[in-house]
């Protein structure tokens, strides 16, 4: 199968899986879940099968058609998008295993709808990853928002629906009100919106307009959660934990920071932005988001809300790394997408396991829980250490590259932010870990053990990935080196 045909198949597999889930759900739960796992495995096989061509320097393309001269729907596979697609497709398998255990363990309703929307969200995610131009990116971005709304609103009670509307409202308002004008402006001045190595805006826009256009893109891509466009993310914590994992690790927030990074690299161009002073505000905005979100996380007593604000901070690591505009930092931005995905999905899996087995959601309820749920809390500990950036975890690798890029640029603000936020991460994660392992459990609690086996298998797998990436990150670094080759002197 050619790589060009593989693009079409990668887009279609999740759609066909969604149809299969709907049909199988009318027959039996086991068949529905078998279709889900088969579809997830098939997508990973297709996407990962394109890697040899990418390593060899190929850039597969597929054009659907032109709507107007220079404005069409097209897909291109390049290193950054390949990394995002490989990450999302691989984690869909693990998340599906986890979802089966979680949804059954909690006797959740509307499971067929849940798995269907999940598959549709993955199709939109692959579309974002392989988008060849801004129009295609925008369309797939909106489809991702719409397909994940039913997942956020899954429980269906009044409070959940209200929070889901916040999720939908903020993401749609920012994309239509800010991102779409930015795209139209780009097409107007550059004549096209194709993602092009080195960017397409140099010589077409200058001065303060560059900073303004960059702001429209960054805040219009609300999924990146740069403050103040972040409130949708804590609101979405009303969703079941597998959805939270989708939002934080597999698709939604990664689509945000991926899109910001792709716009910086392929629309503006790193050299052009570096030479334009009006773009310098982005590092400050990202640094503020990192520190502010970390401080808010310190005040949280609900575990999922703490993880949500931690995600907001961690996302801006990627934005700040991209905004440093140096090759090592750009690699760090890409690597941190992987590191954060492995670590954060582990933390959310652990939070869901604790809720499934013990119905505990608050930090004060976690005292001594490591003795009853040792596998879950061991995985949580690994995820927490990765968020802090302690070796040998994935988080250390990405922070190393981001710091190296900051030193390369002599960017003292980025250096200080990484050091300060690392300390804040330790302050709000380590007490949880310490209390879980070394404090006595509160008396009067309901006896419990580990969550269902599928849940434990999934979270242990992602914990091992978090550790394994520290030692086996070479292919990712090699792939992303292709991204920054044009930036090197």
From TrEMBL:
The chain crosses the membrane at residues 6-25, 37-58, 70-94, 114-130, 136-154, 166-190, 210-233, 245-269, 281-299, 306-325, 337-358, 379-402, 414-439, 451-472. InterPro entries: CPA3_Na-H_Antiporter_D (IPR050586), ND/Mrp_TM (IPR001750). It comes from the Bacteria. Residues 131-421 form the NADH:quinone oxidoreductase/Mrp antiporter transmembrane domain. Its main location: membrane. The keyword Glycoprotein does not apply. It is found in: Cell membrane; Membrane. GO terms for cellular component: plasma membrane. It is a multi-pass membrane protein. Keywords: Cell membrane, Membrane, Transmembrane, Transmembrane helix. Belongs to the CPA3 antiporters (TC 2.A.63) subunit D family. This is Monovalent cation/H+ antiporter subunit D family protein. It comes from Seongchinamella unica.
């Amino acid at each position: 199968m050619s790589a060009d045909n593989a693009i079409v198949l990668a887009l279609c597999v999740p759609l066909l899986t969604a149809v299969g889930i709907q049909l199988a759900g009318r027959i039996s739960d086991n068949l529905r879940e078998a279709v889900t796992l088969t579809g997830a495995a098939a997508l990973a096989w297709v996407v990962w099968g394109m890697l040899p061509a990418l390593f060899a320097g190929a850039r597969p393309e597929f054009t659907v058609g032109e709507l107007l001269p220079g404005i069409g729907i097209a897909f291109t596979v390049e290193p950054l998008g390949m990394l995002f697609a490989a990450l999302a497709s691989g984690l869909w398998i693990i998340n599906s295993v986890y979802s089966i255990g979680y949804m059954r363990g909690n006797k959740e309703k509307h499971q067929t709808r849940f798995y269907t929307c999940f598959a549709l969200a993955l199709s939109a995610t692959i579309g974002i990853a392989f988008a060849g131009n801004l129009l295609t990116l925008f369309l797939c971005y909106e489809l991702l928002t719409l397909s994940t709304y039913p997942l956020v609103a899954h429980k269906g009670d009044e409070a959940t629906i209200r929070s889901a509307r916040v999720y939908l409202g903020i993401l749609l308002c920012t994309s239509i009100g800010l991102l779409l004008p930015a795209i139209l402006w780009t097409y107007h001045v550059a004549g096209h919106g194709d993602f092009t190595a080195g960017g397409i805006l140099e010589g077409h826009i200058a001065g303060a307009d560059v900073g303004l256009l960059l702001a429209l893109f960054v805040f219009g891509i609300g999924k990146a959660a740069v403050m103040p466009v972040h409130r949708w993310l804590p609101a979405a914590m009303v969703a079941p934990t597998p959805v939270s994992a989708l939002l934080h690790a597999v698709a939604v927030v990664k689509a945000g920071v991926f899109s910001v990074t792709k716009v910086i690299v392929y629309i503006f161009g790193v050299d052009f932005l570096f030479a334009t002073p009006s773009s310098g505000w982005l590092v400050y905005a990202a640094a503020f988001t990192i520190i502010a979100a970390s401080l808010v996380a310190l005040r949280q007593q609900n575990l999922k809300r703490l993880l949500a604000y931690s995600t907001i901070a961690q996302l801006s690591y990627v934005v700040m790394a991209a905004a440093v505009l140096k090759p090592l930092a750009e690699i760090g931005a890409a690597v941190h997408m992987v590191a954060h995905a492995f670590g954060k999905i582990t933390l959310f899996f652990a939070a869901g396991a604790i809720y499934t087995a013990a119905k505990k959601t608050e930090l004060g309820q976690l005292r001594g829980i490591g003795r009853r749920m040792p596998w879950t809390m061991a995985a949580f500990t690994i995820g927490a250490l990765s968020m802090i950036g302690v070796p040998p975890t994935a988080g250390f690798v990405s922070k190393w590259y981001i710091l190296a890029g900051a030193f390369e640029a002599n960017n003292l603000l980025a250096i200080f932010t990484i050091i300060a936020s690392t300390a804040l991460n330790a302050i709000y994660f380590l007490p949880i870990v310490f209390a879980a392992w070394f404090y006595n459990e509160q008396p009067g609690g309901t006896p419990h053990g580990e969550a269902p086996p599928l849940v434990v298998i999934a979270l242990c797998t992602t914990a091992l990935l978090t550790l394994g990436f520290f030692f086996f990150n070479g292919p990712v670094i090699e792939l992303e080196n292709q991204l920054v080759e044009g930036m090197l002197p």
